[in-house]
Amino acid sequence: MAEMRKPAGRAKRRASARLKSVAGFLVVVATTYLGLLAVTFFIGRVVPIDPVLAIVGDRAPAHVIERVRQEMGLDLPYYQQFWLYMTGVLRGDFGTSVLTTNPVMADIRRVFPATMELATVGTLIGAFFGIPLGVLAAVKRGSLIDQVVRIVGLIGYSVPIFWLGLLALLVFYARLGWTSGPGRMDVVFEYTFTPVTGFFLLDAIITGDWAALRDIVSHIILPASLLGYFSMAYISRMTRSFMLNELGQEYIVAARAKGLSETRIIWGHALRNAAVPLVTVIALSYAGLLEGSVLTETVFAWPGLGLYITNSLQNADMNAVLGGTIVIGSVFIAINLLSDVLYRMLDPRTRTR
């Protein structure tokens, strides 16, 4: 009887531990998101831009300004304003854009797929080149190859992205004519191409519009390669660090003692174990490209969320600026949490903690 109670007790303790873990996870998510809302609310109140004047203009009569201020709830105490702001955001209501006169959420739904498409292609390019370069640098540690890879990564961190973007446009578009210029596609396709999902590469494949696909690829290759270069710099550096740690482990010595080939040891054993934390690195790199593509979109006139926020900021459209900031912050939080979940799924050692 006592032996039957022990497994039941262990199962109850495991269930209780899982419940506490889930509860703690939800508390972290809620606290982080509440902090994001508090920061954006504070920014909206300290910037030297009056949202009322941005709507009615600085020549509007005083009674009109006062009425709009009351309608927007700006005459209420700050804690009431924050409550209204938070409940509106949770409903997906970011207000109306002064620049486009559309609901901010509708504008974000329209432009965000372009940012996701650009960041996704950039991350794929960064991972495709960054992982092999990081592995090669670790295997050839201290060699000329290692130094070159590290210098390339250092340049990726140091050179301003807008400068590289302008240089890329000058060389590959203006001088050589290898790629198309700014924008997402040529004007001629804007009247014949029908978006389905908002991701133009996928839409062109779905509709079988191969001429549009070639034009879309020609437009995205420069900004995506630029973002991919910065992603590659980060991924290659972290891959090198993870591989150096794995190559110094005892199981690598044992594998060499058994006579396994270096190729199998490096790619089949060391990289396999290094891939667990590398998933988190790639996810964070993707999140970084989503939030850090503002300058790239501005240089290449890419009609994504970054350009939308930039134009809104230049026109004192704070509803659009804060709405875009919240969306980017929310995606960043979600990707961080997803990477943490994937890390726990891929690494059995974390499940016992």
From TrEMBL:
PROSITE patterns the record matches: ABC_TM1
Q: What is its main location?
A: membrane
Q: Where is the ABC transmembrane type-1 domain?
A: 112-343
Q: Which UniProt keywords apply?
A: Cell membrane, Membrane, Transmembrane, Transmembrane helix, Transport
Q: Where in or outside the cell?
A: Cell membrane
TM segment ranges: 21-43, 82-106, 118-139, 151-176, 188-210, 216-235, 274-300, 320-343
Q: This protein's superkingdom?
A: Bacteria
Key word Transmembrane helix present: yes
Query: Which Pfam family, any one, appears in the UniProt record?
Result: BPD_transp_1_N
The answer, when asked if Nucleus is one of the entry's keywords, is no
Q: How does it sit in the membrane?
A: Multi-pass membrane protein
Q: InterPro entries this protein is in? A: BPD_transp_1_N (IPR045621), MetI-like (IPR000515), MetI-like_sf (IPR035906)
To which protein family does this belong? Belongs to the binding-protein-dependent transport system permease family.
- Write the protein's name: ABC transporter permease
